[in-house]
Amino acid sequence: MPIVRFVREARDVRCQYGENLREIALREGMQLYGFKGAIGNCGGCGQCITCFVSVESENLGALSQRTEVEKTKLRNRPDKWRLACQASVKSSLVVLTKPQSPPPNSQQLIEEALSKVLPK
Ligand code: FES
Asked: Residue 36 belongs to a domain with what CATH number?
């Protein structure tokens, strides 16, 4: 079973292969959304563009490939950014939620998260 390591929340969450990243985050009580998304989001349809996550581990292939929605909506965003609602987990990875407003010590948190071995 893959592990999703949430940097901001300092939590490792085990999930099923192919499980939707947004559903994992919400199930585990993560604050996936910023202010705008918390007020109103599309419920996972790929329309509100508020469920950003950044894949911090090297393995961008740990998530399913970008959907057509993401190719359009994320074309001006970093390659490592994804819409959680459009991404399925294929193997263990490290993610930062709300990368549009990273915590002040985000680089340190990311380095710490990456320094710990991820179970396969
Ligand atoms: S929840 Fe609206 S785009 Fe992901």
From this structure: 3.10.20.30
